Amino acid sequence: MVDREPTQRFFESQRLRLSYWDWGNEDAPPLIFVHGGSDHARSWDRIVRGLGEGYHVLSLDVRGHGDSDWSPGSQYAIPDVALDIARLIETTGHPARVVGHSYGASSTLVAAAMFPELFAAAIAIEGTHTMNPKFASDGMGPRWARTWADHARALETQTPRVYPNLDEMADRLQRSNPQQPREWLEHLARFGAREVEGGYVWKFDPWAAGDTRTSMEIRAEELERFWAEIECPVLLLFAGGGGSARAVQRHDAAGLFTHARAVRSAVIPDVGHGIQHDNPERTISEIRTFLDEVVDAK
What domains appear along the chain, each with residue ranges and CATH number? Predict the structure, then answer.
């Protein structure tokens, strides 16, 4: 069990100063965690503590989140984040085992396709269904671009809510996650909040939300070309609902199972989108088993 506190470090990617947390053990194989939208690097602490001492563990604050820079012009496309992941791996050592959730999982898979030599394994938690651009059911034409522009412009006059204290931010998280221990929600609030005049606001950039992430993204019909370039083993973790087969089929973005070389999947019952929060023990077990049996057994 990893029971020490991590050290915060920074690196540069695409002119942004990005934050990551380092649990040490530099001589071990690198294991990198990439959070989802509106989250932060320290949301992985429970998973890190449970995985044991066999890795050099790092956790990235995705651009526009945590203590990483916000991107001017709101460039938060999945390929942008994929490039940041690649830069972190190049900075800290490779090949890396990379675990991502949601937006971070999609970016991890794309990074594994763009830079296959940097990856020993990719683990995507609830990531494949976030791949396709929103509002793109009728194609990436001017109507789609206008819808995106309207969402982006609406944020220009939006002001963040100021919470008087961290307890109220934890209360807000509790209303969305009533099953979570209060101590864990206070941890998420402490690392996810920034102090301002009059109280605290969430650290993440509103422009990093899926509706306004960028004016361009990878389209569904292009994905199979990415999957065919992934060389490392892949583990996909899905939240249950409608049966295991249906959960996998529902999130098989453009044939990932068909085109990637080595894919294993598991469906976790009775959890929501944040599998690692709702069932950290099962998440740790699935990751450890995959790494022990598929990746590190070679």
Answer: 7-132+142-148+208-295 (3.40.50.1820)
